[in-house]
Amino acid sequence: MKHASTYLKFLFISLLIAGCKTTEEDSAAQNESTSPPASTITVSRSQFESNQMQLAPVVMTSTAEEVRATGVIDVPPENRASVSPVMGGYVTHTPLLVGNKVNKGASLLTLENPEYVKLQQQYLEERESLKYLKEEYERHKELLKEKITSKKNYLRAESTYLATRSRVYGLEKQLQILGIKTDRLEPENITTEISLTAPISGSITEIHIAKGDYLQPSETAMEIVNNDHLHLELNVFEKDILKVQEGQEIEFRIPESSDKSFRAEVYLKSNALSENRTIRIHGHIPDSLRNVMVVGMYVEAVILTGDKAENSLPSVPEEAIIEKDGNYYLLFLENETADEYIFRKQAVSPGQTRNGLTSLEGLAIEEGARVLSKGAFDIFQ
């Protein structure tokens, strides 16, 4: 009896353990069948809102053959001017600063030099001599008609008169270049100073002198740039020359300032190769960007050389793509309920990025599918 009772107790305990194990296995199987697979991420609605996450639709964007180029923002040569004196002088007044705007003809700085006085004095002396010589020339001309004087005396008077007149006209032009008005010049208003004026309207971009400096002829005192006509100066490699044509669209950005893209248009194409085997492309920039950009800014550009309607690819916002260990992923919205969002991880192959949208290559996605565009990196596992 004792052995039978022990056996029954052992059998009961064995059956009880087996039942518990079966229950645990069934429960585990049930949990596995109802929980999301490992390739999905569940986000509660409160977490989604508190982290300010955002969804974005997949859109179809046109693709086109493109040529990449680099360059700078510039202005035409006629919109850039260097200010230099014709005659040297000491700087006595320089009131402007870099950034000041000036109009054409405005005074930029004042120079002083005794040579200005000598030039004016010489002009006045020659001008007075010319009056006398002209009368002498006219007198000998009349005497020659009446055969009272010799032709030799007439020719001498004519030669002296014409030579002096040439000197007067030459000195007059020199003074006018210096900005001295000869029609008002008299001995009592001879000046020791001249003003250098702005040859164009624009902004002062560089100043190379200070008060008291001696400014040599042809030495640059300051530079002026007029931004009324900004353009792109791009360099395109020899292999891409035949692809670029006038009228093609340009998308460019200023990497040192922002990632925002701007638009321009190919206006001119050089016909000569430079020493580094590139050609120069001139692109027109809209006038609306005139006050946004600065001459000399470095740009990265893409020239769209193909037909945009040739092909379309699904595209998503650039910030929606997650990079991990050299691979790229997206989080697609799989399901949305009142309490949560379920996202599916998907490996992707990014293509071109243009205007903030990155195309996806080799992936069939329906237009309108949504991805997590903001906050994806924080929850990616």
Summarize the structure in short.
With 381 residues, the protein is of the alpha+beta class. Strand 15 and strand 16 (278-284) form a beta hairpin. Helix content is 27%, strand content 35%.
Query: Which residues sit in consecutive blocks of at least 5 with pLDDT less than 50?
Result: 6-12, 15-37
Helix content: 25-40%
CATH architectural category of one domain: Beta Barrel
Strand content: 35-45%
Order of strands side by side in the largest beta sheet? 4-13-16-15-14-17
CATH superfamily of one domain: Efflux pump adaptor protein, beta barrel domain
Characterize the overall form.
elongated
Summarize model confidence as the mean pLDDT: 84
CATH secondary-structure class of one domain? Mainly Beta
Figure out the total of helices. 5
User: Structural class, from secondary structure content?
Assistant: alpha+beta
- Compressed to H and E, one letter per element, the order equals HEHEEEEEEEHHEEEEEEEEEEEEEEEEH
Number of E-state strands: 24
The CATH topology of one domain comes to: Elongation Factor Tu (Ef-tu), domain 3
CA-based gyration radius: 42 Å
- The rounded distance between the terminal residues' Cα atoms is 63 Å
Query: What about the largest sheet?
Result: 6 strands, antiparallel, barrel
GO molecular function: transmembrane transporter activity
GO biological process, one term: copper ion export
Protein name: Efflux RND transporter periplasmic adaptor subunit
Family: Belongs to the membrane fusion protein (MFP) (TC 8.A.1) family.
